Amino acid sequence: MPNKRSGGGLSPTQQAAKFLGVSVLAGAVMAGIAVPAFGALGLAAKGSVEGFDEIPTNLKRPPLSQRTTILDSKGGQIATVYSRDRTVVDLKSISPYMQKAIVAIEDSRFYEHGAVDLKGVLRALNKNAQSGGVSQGASTLTQQYVKNVFVEEAGDDATLVAQATQQTLGRKVRELKFAIQVEEELGKKKILENYLNITFFGQQAYGVEAAAQRYFSKSAKDLKVEEAALLAGIVQSPSRYDPVNDEEEATKRRNTVLQRMADVGDISRAEADKARKKPLGLKISKPKNGCITAVKGAGFFCDYVREVFLNDPVFGKTQKARAKIWNQGGLTIRTTLDPQSQESAQASIKKHVYKSDDVATATTIVEPGTGKILAMGQSRPYGFGKNETQMNLSVDSNMGGGAGYQPGSTFKPIVAAAAIEGGKPANQVYSSPYKMDYPSPVSACDGKSWNEKGVPVENENETEVGPYDMQDATAKSVNTYYIQLISDIGICPVTDMAGKMGVERADGKKLNQAPSIALGTQEMSPLTMASAYATFAARGTYCSPIAIESIRQTVGGQKKSLPVPKSTCSRAMSENTADTINTLLKGVVEDGTGSEAGLDSRASAGKTGTTDERYAAWFVGYTPNMAGAVWVGDPAHKRKMTNITIGGVPYEKVFGGRVPGPIWRDMMAGALEGKEAPQFNLVNIPRGDTGKDDGRGDEDDNGDEDGNNGDNGGNGGGNGDGNNGGNGGNGNPQFPNPTISIPEEWTINGNDNGGGNGNGGNFP
Questions:
Q1: Residues sharing a CB contact under 8 Å with residue 211, sequence separation 6 or more, in sequence order
Q2: CA–CA distance from 108 to each of 105, 207, 260, 455 (Å)?
Q3: First-to-last CA distance in the chain?
Q4: φ and ψ at 189, to 5 degrees?
Q5: How many other β-carbons are positioned within 10 Å of the β-carbon of residue 27?
Q6: Choosing a second label site near 701 at 20 to 30 A (CA), which of 167, 207, 299, 471?
Q7: C-alpha count within 13 angstroms, C-beta hemisphere, residue 444
């Protein structure tokens, strides 16, 4: 064995031997309690280790990361999430066999020596000197605990983890000094408790409680001697002694631990012999981590809760700070999710839409007046497999969702609310022809105007010819009526009202200033629409959606409450305006396009919507105490809903009242079962003078929704047919896909840049 390294100077082993020899001679190491400054001994040479006295004396012990439990509003568990699966327990909650087993195999002289086992160090040095390498370690349980603290502090940073575990003299000396501090501060019992809670036992289990649950599906306090011996044996090499993947090797290791326990007198020879003959007796519990484990189809809601935590400043000033708290875990999050509503939503989804269908559905229920999200589900389960997805189809893109979906005619009540709030009578009559050009110009915000001529829009059927008043136009979802209405009141009151109701585009962009907004041309999420309609149910008060009611965090054995986001409620419209809209939309479910969504046992209101070429269909509705939105369509926006089978039922054409309507009806019926059935505050709306019979007539098989006209209301101005928006005023050709979102460059103040609304429009 060479006396010196290639770079000159003593080898690390020789340095340590010299250090220990001098320390022993000087009487400085007394059972590992004191170590001299040794910079003068050459240990800092060549950068191998910093001066001993310069090492900080305070070991920062970060709180151990633990699992986070997400609960519903009744306290039922939805899911557990964690960066490290760990449940911290005190020593009295750990089997005495486990305590003895880990000491026997890892550090049998633990209760006899100080932070450093001098005998063990000298023995290891001798062995390593003979072998010319590092064939034997001499770390005490205290030193191992310190190393695990370094690893825990490193978290998921691979570089920091490597630094915390590197085999260098510098790390060992730092470890040694901190071990001395820990021994003085904590004492043996607390060190053992901390060690058993921090160490890794393989199979994603950190700490003995998680390990006992993983391998034996029981608590650490109930471990038998042979089970404790198995777990204690894993610690040295979790991969090598993994009982799940190598039972033979794990059995040998367990028996070694049992023999060692007998050797040191923890158990008798007879007990050891009896235990060695027993099988491993594994009862594996698979790791259960993340929203994929959520019950009752609440995986997407679980994911939404995580997004709220990571994005809301109430949990930390920066995303990094918020992520640190989330990864630290130890949180018990009670959410707003109502188990009855969630179960009903999933049951209705399962009944009406299969996960293997060409299209999907997403539903959301919120509580009017509080903003609480009561249910959130979709037909394609949360996961990674076929017909599964991790995209939350109910929310905006910044919260884990997509770009949203055009809401179609479900936007029309917002236009009506803006008009009534601005002084328009609820019996306002417009000529509402079957087909017409958008009136031009139309006033927009900031004194600007939308100015396009020759942009056509039409109703669903040629039989839909006015004049109509607001009641009939809303029940039948007459496009030309609502285009005349927004042209009359202007675009700005509509976008202002939308803002007050929390209505925003799912992609985060501002609402376009174009009259086609009246026909629901701008993409939104089900959560947005449900929350907006809850404003009507709450008689004009909008409350921002919330998902979290309370959070308790356990840190270092101490429990504390964390602040949580609160719903912001504000008046969006007068009670009279809301009551008027409720009266109008009650008619939609009684004898309008939403008749298949009506609830027999309680007051309900709502609106249907079907978009351009039937890429999406909606029903958004509410009772006085619950509001819900249902969207059905292809998230990829490729499959038109014509000649399609959904939930085992063939449809020639899908529209809002035919598929989303029944989903909403069944979902809400179950969610509301057993709950109060309050009534709306209805108002008397005189019929407008249309010169027609009051009767609205029945919707035939094709109904108001029979047609292929565009929900976009067209994507360009100028000429166009009944299926696509017209070409731009600058003569651009028609868009190949008529469902492209309205461009930002809508013509303002007469600039002819090819914008426009087209003749498509939304349908019920």
A1: 201, 202, 203, 205, 220, 231, 234
A2: 6, 20, 9, 88
A3: 88
A4: -65, -45
A5: 9
A6: 471
A7: 19
User: Alpha-carbon distance 346 to 202, whole Å?
Assistant: 36
Q: Which two tokens stand for residue 112?
A: 């006899």
DSSP labels, 454-494: S-EEE-SSTT--S-EEHHHHHHHT-HHHHHHHHHHH-HHHH
Beta bridge partners of 554: 559
Q: Count the helix, strand and coil residues of the chain and give each as a percent rounded to the nearest 5.
A: 40, 15, 45
| 623 sits in which H/E element | strand 616-623
Tokens of 4: 């010196």
How far apart are alpha carbons 191 and 199 in whole angstroms?
12
3-state secondary structure of 222: helix
User: CB under 8 Å to 511, separation ≥6 — which residues?
Assistant: 495, 498, 499, 503, 504, 505, 517, 522
CA distances from 337 to 77, 372, 373, 392, 666 (A): 11, 8, 6, 16, 18
Give the DSSP letter string of 690-718. Answer: -SS-S------SSGGG-S---TTS-SSSS
For residues 403 and 633, the answer to whether their CB atoms sit within 8 Å is no
SS3 740: coil
Q: How confident is the model at residue 148 (pLDDT cuts 50, 70, 90)?
A: confident
Rounded to whole angstroms, how far apart are CA atoms 68 and 87?
Answer: 10
Q: State residue 129's pLDDT score.
A: 59
Place of tokens 């005189």: 686
Angle, in degrees to the nearest 10, between helices 526-537 and 575-591: 110
Cβ neighbors of 557 (< 8 A, separation 6 or more) are 88, 90
- Least Cα distance to 46 among 202, 170, 209, 227 occurs for 170
DSSP secondary structure, 255-283, as one string: HHHHHHHHHTTSS-HHHHHHHHTS-----
What secondary structure does DSSP assign to 521-538, as a single string?
Answer: -S-B-HHHHHHHHHHHHT
Separation between Cα atoms, residue 482 and residue 582, nearest integer Å = 17
Distance CA 499, CA 673 (A): 33
Helices (H), 78-236: 96-106, 118-131, 141-154, 158-165, 169-186, 188-198, 208-216, 225-234
Q: What pLDDT digit, counting tens, does each position of 22-62 carry?
A: 343 333 333 333 333 333 333 333 334 444 444 455 566 66
Counting Cα atoms < 13 Å in the Cβ hemisphere of 653 gives 19
Residue 95 has pLDDT above 80, yes or no: yes
Q: What is the secondary structure of 320-389 as a DSSP string?
A: HHHHHHHHH--EEEEE---HHHHHHHHHHHHHH--TTSSSEEEEEEE-TTT-BEEEEEESS-BSSSTT-B
Contact by Cβ (8 Å): 587, 475: yes
> Does the structure show a pLDDT above 90 at 304?
yes
Tell me the residue type at 273. Answer: D
SS (H, E, C) 566-609: CCCEEECCCHHHHHHHHHHHHHHHHHCCCHHHCCCCCCCEEEEE
* CA–CA distance, 617 with 640 (Å, rounded to integer): 10
The secondary structure of residue 194, as a DSSP letter, is: H
User: What are the tokens at 328?
Assistant: 């630290």
Output the six-digit token pair for 56: 């900080």
